[in-house]
Amino acid sequence: MSYNPPVSEQRFVLDHVVGINELTAHERYAAATSDMVDAILEGAGAFAAGEYAPLNRAGDEIGARWADGKVTMPPGFREAYQAFVEGGWGTISAPEAYGGQGLPNVLGTVIMEDLGTANMGFSLINMLTPAAIESLIAAGTDAQRDTYLGKLITGEWNGTMNLTEPQAGSDVGALRTTATPTGDGLYRIKGTKIFITFGEHDLTDNIVHLVLARTPGAPAGTRGISLFIVPKVRADGTHNDVRCVSIEHKMGIHASPTCVLSYGDNDDCLGELIGPEFGGMAAMFVMMNNARLNVGLQGIQIAERATQQAVGYAMERIQSARAGGATRDPVAIIEHPDVRRMLLRMKALTQGARALIYYAFGQLDRAHLGDADAQDRVDLLTPLAKAWGTDVGCEVASLGVQVHGGMGFIEETGAAQHYRDIRIAPIYEGTNGIQAADLVGRKLGLGGGAPLAALIADMRAEAQDAGLRALIDDVEAVAAHLAGSGPDDRLAGSYPFLTMLSVAVGGWLMERQGRIAAGVDGDPAFLAMKRAAADYFVGQVVPEAAGLKASALAGAELLYSVDAAAFAA
Amino acid sequence: MSYNPPVSEQRFVLDHVVGINELTAHERYAAATSDMVDAILEGAGAFAAGEYAPLNRAGDEIGARWADGKVTMPPGFREAYQAFVEGGWGTISAPEAYGGQGLPNVLGTVIMEDLGTANMGFSLINMLTPAAIESLIAAGTDAQRDTYLGKLITGEWNGTMNLTEPQAGSDVGALRTTATPTGDGLYRIKGTKIFITFGEHDLTDNIVHLVLARTPGAPAGTRGISLFIVPKVRADGTHNDVRCVSIEHKMGIHASPTCVLSYGDNDDCLGELIGPEFGGMAAMFVMMNNARLNVGLQGIQIAERATQQAVGYAMERIQSARAGGATRDPVAIIEHPDVRRMLLRMKALTQGARALIYYAFGQLDRAHLGDADAQDRVDLLTPLAKAWGTDVGCEVASLGVQVHGGMGFIEETGAAQHYRDIRIAPIYEGTNGIQAADLVGRKLGLGGGAPLAALIADMRAEAQDAGLRALIDDVEAVAAHLAGSGPDDRLAGSYPFLTMLSVAVGGWLMERQGRIAAGVDGDPAFLAMKRAAADYFVGQVVPEAAGLKASALAGAELLYSVDAAAFAA
């Protein structure tokens, strides 16, 4: 099943949710004319469909292979990656000072969406490099920026994030990798990192590892962590002492090598500090927040691909007459009400999640232009984008399998790959439970609660539907309740609250789009579907989320009414 | 992770949901003393844990292999299957006239649950044979019964169901396989069947295929279908002309060979008619209804196994201090509120689905004792058991992956296998959408609506919680609305209605169990967990289901407000 880039949808969301014209009215983004935006959308879609999508099944079936410390990508990947570099697709929203085109981040988002929709596993190499770029821009020295930024931006080199160790997953502060000063400004890195995406491969000549480690005498926990840059190939052309000792056998994203990296086995792994000593956690949050929005975007990627595939199958597969129909002739299954319900749900959830995530990226662009309120809003929306976006991806991929019936369970069809691939997204870059904890722990109280209050006010000023308005009221009431609760009660309600708030935001932005679609000129089929998806979201998804209120308010007492051991009884 | 049979839970549900004592009070089941019930529960659990569970990972990793028409099972499967036969585990609830022990069906259910929890893919051979047994008991001649029943009951031979053809999936009436009389009472079978579970393997000396086919001049559609019995090895010891031409490469249940069977390539495939000519659909429903309840049971199997595995991991994995806790020492993740929320949800959903499905099997036993109302209730509950039971299985398996964090996505952990294995269950034996159509199309109107009215009356007579009572009211109102609607509107609301009704039944039976658990003697840990699971189900799962009311009532207008082609816009 080929990939058909949703250009009309992307442009509509940029226009009516992101407000791209407001962004491009700013002198910094003046180069992004409306024609250029169209050209990027068309071009990125065509590139992804032409170069990345055809490799998606091979990425799954052959996958990245490890032998003797080397990782070999499936045939065709090196050429496609080279085409990405040569096409300049990595440069769109990077700073002009380092060879970027300086266009709004949200346009980089569209490109990332296209790449991941075409080939999620492969696109992780494109997704993680920007985290390294952000870290260097935020905290690197001029020399570090000069050395690395240009090649990271084009993609000639890729970046990796090295946080996790076997005993230090969600609890990053438990990491043990050490960094010992050599005396000449460098550090010897020693330790083992796991779950390192594209930590080794044969697509680029160099790999730039960003590594969290502890300097001698550093305080325990997260306060004692520093960030280091460790290139696979050093400036003098010698190889650093870092080795890929294995890759994981995973349920999905087989095209993405998930590496165990061993640093300093021979005490010859040299790295440089980025930013101040003990500045590792701050730097990590710079990397993570970027990555979290992008993981949320992966939810849309697979949702879009799974929907396209299911629609294609449902239009071709002929089975059974329509119940109550005029004839007994079998019809395409898209004509059956419950199949159509599944497809409309897929469309509505995908569009709702896209609206929320594009909106968040649009706020990030405003923040980069100096709007502090926009930064607060991004901070508030990041856990929603990551957690709800990936939950939507999983649900839609599952519906995609279901629409295929028995063929959905057969690997050759491809629907199963989407279901397997996306299941990592609620887990990595902070599990969705960690996102929910971030929402109720850090984000609810941000600025004394002002960012949430402002968001609720914006939603309330525009929302029309009584059910949507009731959900916004519920969200406000639950937030007030959780803000006044102790940590256990707050965390017990965190996940259902995150879903409620996400659906409220999605409903707000979908209702707006439906209203606009009723009054603008454009492709009648696209506009009709936008209206139907908006009606479904507001009329049917929103009431479901209201059903989570009891859970969000339930508190922790029941959870601890039994001993841990009783769970095994 | 080994399998720990949930004997206390199984016995509690048999006592307080099934009413096993009422069944065994009947003279036909007098042999099933309370001690014998305990012995079967303990013995079946130990057998499944000892023989089937250790093969579960190999079943996934090696899987069934096809070569030259033969299917080879992984090492150890033949010995474990032989132990099943020799242990007499297939005979428990089979009729005494054919070597069975004549005990209540619901005890066979417990055994089936244990086998499938231990090894879902493998256990399909045990699950499908009873469908063949039921068909022969319902419609076979004395000679057919004498030839086949004994060996099917012990499991020396296994049975298969041959319905599906490439163009005939949900629409069974579209099948093309032919059966031509030979003149001496036999039929020559010719055609291709797909998705045939254990259609070929090396575990037994013979395989008994039940095949739907058309006789010459048969009417089109389902009215022209007849059922045939086609043994792999004929009575004279010669092989029938049936060949396994391939097996599918599936997302899960790799231990279960899913075969393409070609009948009569050399015009030498001989079968016998079972039951009357054109009696195929009636016979199919006998097979299917049995199988549908058993597929629902698979939902519990994986839910149970995934829960056990997640609880085990969460008790061992140490990560992060408890938020707001007295110390900064890291704790087992089961101590964190959101992990505990996931685990309690897994327990509550698993127990709720087990209650509904065991209850349905208990009603089947009453029906076999001549209770017509009980048969109506089984008919009503069968689509709920199949669809909601398997939806629960998928959700709980997904939560199990999530509890494992990054390790959940790594295949060696085993959590991913459960997630992949169970995804077939909402699809086969009639997709869950077909179940929802069956519920609103056939079952709502059954007996003028009396079976549903009786179920609602029973629930209302016992339910205490205001939210649960409100859901029962909603279910009644939605049912009345759907019963008065046209087919499109009815089908558009069918799936959310099915979930609402299922959760109402689950809530009714869980609330009852929670009440009983508060007043009986027993293992304090088990009883405390039962009460907590009941409170979670009634207090938090029930309100979610109420949130589906808008969808159930929405009708089909929105679904058809756009052309099919617009879904691809």
TrEMBL record, chains A, B:
Record InterPro entries: Acyl-CoA_dh-like_C_dom, Acyl-CoA_Oxase/DH_mid-dom, Acyl-CoA_Oxase/DH_mid-dom_sf, AcylCo_DH-like_C, AcylCo_DH/oxidase_C, AcylCoA_DH/ox_N, AcylCoA_DH/ox_N_sf, AcylCoA_DH/oxidase_NM_dom_sf
Domain Acyl-CoA dehydrogenase/oxidase N-terminal: 39-156
Domain Acetyl-CoA dehydrogenase-like C-terminal: 460-561
Cofactor: FAD
All copies of domain Acyl-CoA dehydrogenase/oxidase C-terminal, residue ranges: 280-439
Key word Flavoprotein present: yes
Residue span(s) of domain Acyl-CoA oxidase/dehydrogenase middle: 161-262
Entries under SUPFAM superfamilies matching the protein: Acyl-CoA dehydrogenase C-terminal domain-like (SSF47203), Acyl-CoA dehydrogenase NM domain-like (SSF56645)
PANTHER family associated with the record: ACYL-COA DEHYDROGENASE (PTHR42803), BROAD-SPECIFICITY LINEAR ACYL-COA DEHYDROGENASE FADE5 (PTHR42803:SF1)
Family to which this protein belongs: Belongs to the acyl-CoA dehydrogenase family.
Protein name: Acyl-CoA dehydrogenase
Native organism: Sphingomonas colocasiae
